[in-house]
Specification:
The protein has 248 residues and is an alpha+beta fold. Helices cover 42% and strands 23% of the residues. The protein has helices spanning 3-26, 36-69, 87-115, 222-238; strands at 123-130, 133-138, 143-145, 148-151, 156-162, 167-171, 176-180, 186-190, 196-202, 214-220. Bound molecules: copper (II) ion (CU).
Length: 248
């Protein structure tokens, strides 16, 4: 590269890089992290966003510089000089994306594997979805609720069924989303880490009431969770509620 190109390109990289970094780091893009899965997903996401920012900065700086520096003079209708390729450049722009995609692919599969590692002492909660509501059954305690209550620091497995169309259980703070499909049982593993109340949303357009198909995911400390479970079971028994219907 000739030296007269170097200085303006460095300045353009610095200016565009600074604007890109300000947008990436200056905006609070993501909700709280309330599960181990959220932390792993966000590490991968940060890598993707930062790598994208670096590529965006380089491409935009060269594009802006080339558009300005090599623009045609007014009235010049002629073609530019022919170009017969640049082997070194083509190797560089092939090798870098290959390495980047390999890192993303391996990192994604490691993240998925760790997110789906099953704990032997996990709590099982059955999920029933229909147009347009969620129902959560704590079968070992014999009751059903409309909110998903989970213990902090203990893995939960959701066993999910739909009685009509495809729904999709999504809690943004857990960074987890899974379809609930009629005729099929789907599962979702969650390791809640943070006490709090988070929106639980249907993320599949499932009919006219899709927009109101919302509930809450409530993470409690283990002591509070056990107390809530005992209390809910006692209330259900006192009300003479029948045991939750068996699911197929
Ligand atoms: Cu739905």
């Amino acid at each position: 590269m000739k030296n007269r190109h170097l200085a303006p390109l460095v300045v353009l990289h610095l200016v565009i890089g600074a604007i890109t970094a300000a947008v990436i780091f200056g905006v609070d893009w993501w909700p709280d992290q309330a599960s181990e899965q959220a932390v792993r997903a966000d590490h991968l996401m940060w890598f993707l966003v930062i790598a994208s920012g670096v590529i965006f900065t380089g491409v935009t700086a060269f594009l802006v510089y080339a558009t300005w520096r090599f623009r045609a003079p007014p009235g010049d209708e002629s073609d530019g000089p022919p170009s017969h390729g640049n082997t070194r450049l083509e190797i560089v722009w092939t090798v870098i994306p290959v390495l980047l995609l390999a890192v993303i692919g391996i990192w994604s599969s490691v993240t998925t594997g760790r997110n789906e590692a099953v704990a032997s002492d996990r709590e099982i909660i059955e999920v029933h979805a229909w147009q347009f509501a969620w129902e959560f059954t704590y079968r070992d305690a014999g009751f059903t609720t409309g909110d998903l209550v989970l213990p902090q620091g203990r893995q939960v497995e959701l066993i999910m069924r739909s009685s009509d169309v495809i729904h999709d259980l999504w809690v943004p703070e857990f960074r987890l989303k899974e379809d609930v499909v009629p005729g099929v049982t789907t599962n979702l593993l969650i390791d809640p880490t943070r006490v709090g109340t988070y929106p639980l949303i249907c993320a599949e357009l499932c009919g006219a009431g899709h927009g109101i198909m919302r509930s809450q995911a409530i993470v409690k400390t283990q002591a509070d969770y056990e107390a809530w479970k005992r209390q809910s079971a006692a209330t259900a028994r006192a009300a003479g509620a029948p045991a939750p219907a068996p699911t197929n």
